[in-house]
Write a structure and sequence with these properties.
The complex is a heterodimer of chains A (128) and B (141). With 128 residues, chain A is of the alpha+beta class. Helix content of chain A is 25%, strand content 33%. In chain B, a hairpin with a 2-residue loop joins β4 (97-110) and β5. The chains are: A alpha+beta (128), B alpha+beta (141).
């Protein structure tokens, strides 16, 4: 089975500001360069939940009518503005009831792993 | 369960505009996040909250997650987000009022770091379980 892939445009500082506004998570480490540096980051660090949200976008592209039953991620390394993210479906299997269980990986262009995760979709057959 | 290990979010009314903004920032395109008409055509009460929307309930709340951090004496800049998972039961739609309760499932010390395993149950106005969320937070030394 071919590996589905979804590329996210380079993350910009404004994306993190917009995500802060939309989610309500205004932790300055995500938006204010000085606050990020004080916490030992070269620049503001992307909200983990922003990256998980981008994975949900990839799932929408791959399975437009899929209904998520489970969605899990483990954050492996931070994402900073300027990085390009590549979301790859690393495994997919179908159960007898046509549910889909898959695993995903998010890396940057240098193959550094940002997160690994898994998902289950209900009734995959009609959407595959 | 000790009371200081539980956090009650304020009952949170899900607004259509909030869903739309959140979906747009993530680049989601499905019209069920934007159009009440389309959502209802697909038999939902109203526009649907996207998969990671519960995070809005945690942060855009009069009793937000950072207030719980304070009670645990966690400083946000010393805390890493290790894991996040959702199990989905009933849909969350605009117009719903969601009550969420967070409990600390367990706390583990590993290699100078403290791991907090948090579980949040989200219920709607019909007292139906909508989402169960697990979060692992890592407190750095």
């Amino acid at each position: 089975m071919s590996h589905k892939q979804y590329k996210v445009k380079h993350i910009q500082p404004i994306d993190l500001i917009q995500y802060a506004g939309a989610s309500g998570d205004f932790n300055p480490v995500h938006t204010i360069p000085d606050a990020a540096r004080k916490s030992g980051h070269p620049q503001p660090i992307a909200h983990g939940m922003y990256i998980m949200g981008l994975v949900s976008k990839a799932l929408e592209v791959w399975y437009p009518k899929g209904k998520l039953a489970k969605f899990q991620v483990r954050f492996q390394s931070p994402t900073y503005p300027g990085e390009e993210l590549i979301i790859t479906e690393t495994k997919i299997e179908k159960t007898e009831s046509d549910d889909l269980h898959g695993t995903i990986e998010v890396t940057d262009a240098q193959q550094q792993v940002k997160l690994r995760g898994a998902f289950s979709l209900k009734g995959g057959k009609e959407h595959d | 369960m000790k009371e200081e290990m539980t956090h009650h979010y304020k009952p949170f009314e899900i607004e259509r505009g909030k869903i739309k903004t959140f979906a747009k920032v993530l680049g989601l395109k499905n019209s069920i996040y934007y159009s009440q008409e389309e959502a209802q055509r697909q038999s939902y009460r109203d526009v649907l909250a996207p998969p990671t929307f519960p995070t809005v309930i945690e942060y855009t709340n009069d009793c937000d997650l950072y207030q719980f951090f304070d009670r645990l004496q966690l400083h946000p800049e010393k805390v890493l987000h290790g894991e996040q998972s959702y199990e989905y039961y009933e849909e969350i739609c605009a117009g719903d009022t969601i009550s969420a309760t967070l409990t600390v499932e367990r706390i583990e010390e590993k290699r100078n770091m403290t791991f907090y395993y948090l579980k949040t149950m989200y219920r709607n106005q019909f007292n139906e379980l909508t989402v169960v969320c697990m979060i692992t937070l890592i407190k750095m030394p």
